[in-house]
């Protein structure tokens, strides 16, 4: 099962196609909203983990910032734990366990949808953490430049893969927005994206590699 980004506008043939390239686990989607009534998070184990990690604690952590150290420079993200506590909790847990260390952002889109997709240790678009969890959406989500959001394989199938929006992008409110890059970080991603993909097409591996060395939570 591959996670995906859906083209929101009828642009070119590429944009009309399903933009896929990120898998979570094979666990069945859950209809349970997060957080639960008691404030805890729901994580469903299932599928193979690309790197062995523990499932996050059900109790959300308090974290405000993440610095993603990459081959193009540090990407600073302000985390929105108030709005998306369980998504931030998962991202922090994976980061602190080294799940994202020494991984490659495997997918760049430059036509209609302007994102760099990361978070798969296999760099194939099929990797996940061995668990999934529900969306945290309220219908007001937008994907302006600087947005950091979860890729998914449909409703309530979040795993480890996320995308960085480097130019305003029109998408439906289907992807949990859990943070925003600062202006300098957004510019770094946009600069790498300007080189296009290895194939020269609008969707594929970035020509300028973006390798994550570590993620520091503050």
From TrEMBL:
GO MF assignments: peptidyl-prolyl cis-trans isomerase activity
Renumbered residue ranges of the record's region Disordered: 196-218
E.C. code: 5.2.1.8
Reaction(s) this enzyme catalyzes, per UniProt: [protein]-peptidylproline (omega=180) = [protein]-peptidylproline (omega=0)
Keywords: Isomerase, Rotamase, Signal
Residue ranges of every copy of the PPIase cyclophilin-type domain listed in the record: 62-217
Position of the signal peptide: 1-27
Enzyme class: isomerase
Function: PPIases accelerate the folding of proteins. It catalyzes the cis-trans isomerization of proline imidic peptide bonds in oligopeptides.
Family of this protein: Belongs to the cyclophilin-type PPIase family.
Name this protein carries in UniProt: Peptidyl-prolyl cis-trans isomerase
Lineage: Bacteria, Bacillati, Actinomycetota, Actinomycetes, Micrococcales
């Amino acid at each position: 099962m591959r996670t995906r980004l859906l083209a929101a506008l009828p642009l070119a043939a590429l944009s009309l196609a399903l933009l896929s390239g990120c898998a979570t686990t094979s666990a069945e989607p859950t209809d349970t909203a997060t957080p639960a009534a008691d404030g805890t998070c729901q994580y469903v184990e299932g599928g193979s983990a690309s790197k062995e990690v523990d499932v996050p604690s059900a109790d959300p952590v308090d974290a405000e910032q993440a610095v993603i150290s990459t081959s193009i420079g540090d990407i600073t993200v302000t985390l929105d734990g108030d709005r998306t506590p369980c998504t931030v909790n998962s991202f922090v847990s994976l980061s602190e366990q080294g799940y994202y260390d020494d991984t490659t952002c495997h997918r760049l889109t430059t036509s209609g949808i302007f994102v760099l997709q990361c978070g798969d240790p296999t760099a194939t678009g099929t990797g996940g953490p061995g668990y999934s969890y529900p969306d945290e959406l309220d219908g007001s989500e937008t994907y302006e430049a600087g947005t950091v959001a979860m890729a998914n394989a449909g409703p309530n199938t979040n795993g480890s893969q996320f995308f960085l929006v480097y130019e305003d992008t029109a998408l439906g409110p289907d992807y949990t927005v859990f943070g925003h890059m600062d202006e300098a970080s957004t510019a770094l991603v946009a600069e790498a994206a300007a080189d296009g993909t290895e194939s020269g097409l609008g969707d594929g591996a970035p020509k300028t590699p973006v390798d994550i060395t570590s993620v520091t939570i503050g």
